[in-house]
Amino acid sequence: MKKIILFTILSIISANMIQAQNCQLSEEAKHHWRRANAIAEDLKTSDSYSKAIDEFMEVIIFASDCPDAYYNLSVLYGQWAELDNQNKYQRLNYAAARAVL
């Protein structure tokens, strides 16, 4: 039951995946950010989730201090019912957000 409630909440939140407002992105990171968001707009299969997640992981490679990328990863993992990974990236998002402040 808890998973269903969490999934419902995350589904509502995911409609508003955030843009890189708190990040200084290189051109390469921006390229992956745009690709990830384009894929995330039409999530229908496990493959599309996997591709969007891979693109956000690429953003993190180029901008590891970007809390928005970790947030969007946690939303995607939550939708994909990978709750262990979601919790991991929520913790990393918190740590990255603290580093930015």
Description of the structure:
This protein has 101 residues and is mainly α. It has a single domain, classed as Serine Threonine Protein Phosphatase 5, Tetratricopeptide repeat (Alpha Horseshoe). Helix content is 74%, strand content 0%. It contains five helices and no strands. Helix 1 (2-14) crosses helix 4. The radius of gyration is 13 Å and the shape is globular. The N and C termini lie far apart (36 Å). The relative contact order is 0.17. Mean pLDDT is 78; it is low at 5-10 and 12-16.
Comma- or semicolon-separated keywords:
101 residues, mainly alpha, Serine Threonine Protein Phosphatase 5, Tetratricopeptide repeat, 5 helices, 74% helix, 0% strand
